[in-house]
Write a structure and sequence with these properties.
Largest sheet: 7 strands, antiparallel
Strand order of the largest sheet: 3-2-8-5-4-1-9
Distance between the termini: 23 Å
Strand content: 35-45%
Radius of gyration: 13 Å
Mean pLDDT: 91
Structural class: mainly beta
Shape: globular
Number of strands: 9
Number of helices: 1
Helix content: under 10%
Low-confidence stretches: none
Length: 119
């Protein structure tokens, strides 16, 4: 998996970016309601699919606007330091990436969608 350092407002401007959240047993497109950060920070890729990937924003502190935060853990349950929004994933089409992601050494534990669009 990969890591990306960019402001949310930058990512928002890329073609085809969407934000998905799991609510009440179904996936909901919340792109229009998502509060994009203006300062750069890390995003971690959590699932790569043909044509794009799901990512989670990462913060060193809980973010009130996320309406729920989950500690960032690797697939073995080890604390990676930081938080990600609960049940929320950013879809970024591969062709839209305008920053070069770096390789991450650990995979993030989560239950991201297995397809795009999620269903």
């Amino acid at each position: 998996m990969r890591s990306l350092y960019a402001a949310g407002t930058t990512i928002k401007s890329w073609d085809g970016v969407q934000v998905w959240q799991y609510e009440r047993g179904q996936w909901k497109d919340i792109t229009g309601a998502w509060e994009w950060s203006s300062g750069p920070h890390y995003h971690r890729e959590v699932r790569a699919l043909e044509g794009g990937s799901y990512w989670v924003p990462v913060s060193s502190q809980r973010v009130q606007e996320w309406n729920g935060s989950t500690p960032l853990e690797d697939t073995n349950g080890h604390d990676l330091g930081g938080y990600r929004p609960s049940r929320t994933y950013i879809w970024i089409p591969e062709a839209s990436l305008q920053s070069v992601p770096s390789n991450a050494t650990e995979n993030v534990q989560c239950h991201s969608p297995r397809e795009f669009p999620p269903g």
